[in-house]
Write a structure and sequence with these properties.
Blueprint lengths: L1 E3 L10 H10 L6 H18 L5 H12 L14 H8 L10 E7 L3 E8 L1 H14 L4
Antiparallel strand pairs: 1-3, 2-3
Helix pairs in contact: 1-2, 1-4, 2-3, 2-5
Length: 134
């Protein structure tokens, strides 16, 4: 289910997946870098749900997010079972599926609470490609 993100949720953009990356990397990936990776993940989900255009996606990734990365996760850090398990620990989760704050077209923020395992897996594989890990 898509809903406008409450003001308090805006700062959670990138954090659900980012905290998982911090955890799975045993904190080798620092918090800020993990959040950027989480933003990239959220943008992939938004693009794949057709809530963000491919043009905006590419601009954000190539001009804003990817250039700020100095710490890259390994494929091991992005193991889907471990990532999904870590994401399930998110205190903002309200159902069996996961919650995620996303940036969408028009630079608005929305919250979804129906992010299922298969969508996480698909988006994680795409993230690995975007990061040049596959």
């Amino acid at each position: 289910m898509i809903q406008p993100a409450a003001r308090g949720n805006l700062l959670n953009f990138g954090h659900c997946f980012g905290h998982a990356v911090e955890s799975t990397s045993s904190f080798v990936i620092p918090h800020g870098q993990a959040v950027v990776i989480g933003m990239m993940f959220a943008n992939i989900v938004a693009k794949n749900r057709q809530l963000m255009s491919s043009v905006l996606f590419e601009q954000l990734h190539q001009q804003v997010l990817k250039p700020t990365l100095t710490s890259f996760p390994s494929k091991h850090h992005l193991d889907i079972a471990t990532i999904f398990s870590a994401m399930k620990m998110d205190k903002k989760r309200t159902s069996e599926d996961l919650a995620l704050i996303m940036l969408v077209e028009g630079c608005n923020m929305v919250k979804i609470d129906d992010l299922a395992y298969e969508e996480v897996a698909t988006s994680n594989r795409e993230l690995q490609q975007v990061l040049g890990l596959s």
